[in-house]
Design brief:
By secondary structure, the chain is an alpha/beta fold. The chain has helices at residues 42-48, 53-72, 84-87, 92-103, 112-126, 130-135, 168-177, 185-205, 220-226, 234-245, 249-256, 263-280, 292-303, 313-327, 332-353, 357-368, 381-391, 399-413, 419-422, 430-449, 480-484, 487-497, and strands at residues 4-11, 16-24, 28-37, 77-82, 108-109, 138-143, 148-154, 157-164, 212-216, 231-233, 284-286, 460-464, 468-473, 500-505. A six-stranded mixed β-sheet has the order 8-7-6-9-11-10, sandwiched between helices. The mean pLDDT is 89.
Length: 507
């Protein structure tokens, strides 16, 4: 039996955590040890955009300590990630370089959607009847230091996800900056939270109730775990949270096993959850007690194919794209037609050109969102589509992947801007730009094959030859328009793949 000793590191806004796991097919993911240190990075970043030099050095020393612990456990692989405090830094690349020099640990930076997706995967793995819970109306509320993520599920599918800047550390700093009495604290938090929840309700709930709620956080979950209350009615949850507020700071810290300084964050989390429960009409609460480190470990096990998938997460990403398309009045029928054609072309090329499963997923999203910009402007479809996609979070995609999708959709409707021409327009590297070229060539071809919007290529065959991709269509279909406007798309496809697409129709 192969056992992987894996280290997961979360460089959080308020705390830094190392978790050691043993991962194997026989036992799954088993926590071995954990180490938590506290340096408040978020207060610096959210106020000034930079971390004080003393805190930079202190985190570097903590990471060096984490490295020594991992060496003692003979950790074979690790992943270290920073979250919102690092994302919002003006000089993140310099700080990350200093940390790596000091500790030998490379810290990656998760986009918000990547971070929340890891938490979501971990919750799905830990909650045994997860698919049953989300088959009814359900929301996952993921509470971080800088923001919270609310993901709505209906009939087992992800319906909508939205990021709100209501993170507990951000709320704490706002309250501290206001000269107000302690008796006013609850009302202040409620006012800040309710104003954003009201907008969320109008956009996504339409007076519907969210019966089930899953909490992912560091403090409320720890409180519930201390009383073995992972799964409770909402009324019991609120009663216990309110009771905990009347306890002394040392008593709460001892019971939940957190530092005294963290108790105010627990308090804010409690008020935040009360407001969400009341707004959503929630009946039942799950607090599985997972952290980002658990999600990092789950991702490792999934990629190594040590654990089978606990849920079809790819379909959640697709469902998210469909919801964005519907929000901007996308043509769902035509999107399905283009997606079908594009995927058949992709699959014909996949083996010879080494196209990846992830590229296939991105192509699907491009096809679904191919016309989202027409909601704003039909004449400026390309740029409007790009701006919509870049401004809309797609949970499960990194920022770079979202930019790849946005560019493919844009270049589907406009002239391609080559990597050498882009200059400072984007941070995308050459590999990402080559992917944009491949996906654009396929999407343009699929779009051209349905130029009349009459689904003439519902029944076609593909033959890959050394010099061409032969598209075989049955006789009796009038494809005069498609053939007449095919040349420009074929030229670009040939430039990218080195073979020319040719339409062949038997008489």
């Amino acid at each position: 039996m192969t056992i992987h000793t894996f280290g997961a590191i979360d460089v959080g806004s308020y705390e830094q955590e190392l978790k050691i796991f043993e991962v194997s097919k026989a036992r799954g993911i088993r926590p071995v040890d954990s180490l938590v240190r506290r340096v408040d990075l978020g207060s610096d970043t959210y106020q000034t955009g930079k971390i004080r030099s003393g805190n930079v050095r202190e985190v570097g020393d903590i990471l060096r300590e984490f490295r020594e612990v991992m060496n003692n456990y003979r950790v074979t692989e690790y992943k270290a990630y920073g979250t919102s405090a690092i994302r919002e830094m003006d000089n993140a690349s310099m700080v990350l370089s200093l940390w790596e020099q000091r500790s030998g640990i490379h810290v990656g930076v998760l986009s918000n959607s990547e971070q929340r997706f890891l938490d979501y995967k971990s919750a799905a793995a830990k909650i045994g009847d997860f698919d049953s819970i989300i088959s009814d109306s359900c929301a996952i509320v993921d509470i971080g230091g800088g923001s919270i993520q609310i993901s709505l599920f209906s009939d087992g599918k992800l319906g909508a996800t939205q990021n709100l800047r209501l993170g507990i550390l951000r709320l704490y700093e706002k309250i501290r900056s206001i000269d107000a009495r302690e008796s006013q604290r609850d009302a202040m938090i409620s006012e800040m939270v309710d104003s954003q929840l009201e907008v969320f309700q109008k956009l996504y709930l339409n007076n519907r109730k969210v019966r089930n709620l899953i909490i992912v956080d560091d403090y409320i979950s720890a409180l519930m775990q201390s009383r073995k209350m992972e799964d409770v009615p909402a009324a019991a949850f609120i009663e216990y949270v309110r009771m905990a507020r009347d306890m002394s700071v040392p008593e709460i810290a001892r019971r939940v096993q957190i530092a005294d300084d963290n108790v105010p964050l627990l308090y804010i989390s409690g008020v935040l959850m009360e407001r969400i429960i009341e707004a959503f009409g929630t009946e039942h609460i799950w607090a599985p007690g997972i952290t980002l480190c658990d999600g990092i470990a789950y991702e490792f096990a999934e990629k190594q194919k040590i654990l089978p998938p606990s849920h079809n997460f790819e379909e959640d990403i697709i469902a998210c794209a469909h919801n964005i398309s519907r929000r901007y009045m996308g043509d769902e029928t035509r999107g399905e037609t283009i997606e079908t054609i594009a995927l058949r072309i992709f699959d014909a090329l996949r083996k010879q050109y080494g196209l990846s499963k992830r590229e296939r997923l991105l192509l699907r999203i491009c096809a679904i969102l191919h016309d989202c910009g027409k909601y704003i402007s039909i004449t400026n479809l390309a740029e409007c589509s790009y701006n919509i996609i870049m401004s809309t979070e797609i949970i499960g995609l990194s920022h770079i992947e979202r930019e790849i999708v946005a560019n493919v959709v844009r270049f589907n409707h406009s002239e391609f801007v080559y990597y050498e021409e882009q200059q400072n327009m984007s941070d995308l590297d050459l590999d990402a730009y080559l992917m944009i070229g491949r996906l654009t060539a396929i999407l343009r071809l699929a779009n051209g094959m349905d130029r009349s919007h009459k689904r003439k290529f519902e029944d076609f065959g593909l033959t890959l030859k050394p010099d061409r991709l032969q598209i075989n269509i049955r006789p009796g279909v009038d494809i005069t328009l498609e053939k007449g406007m095919f040349a420009h798309r074929a030229d670009f496809f040939e430039e990218i793949f080195g073979i020319r697409p040719v339409i062949r129709q038997k008489k």
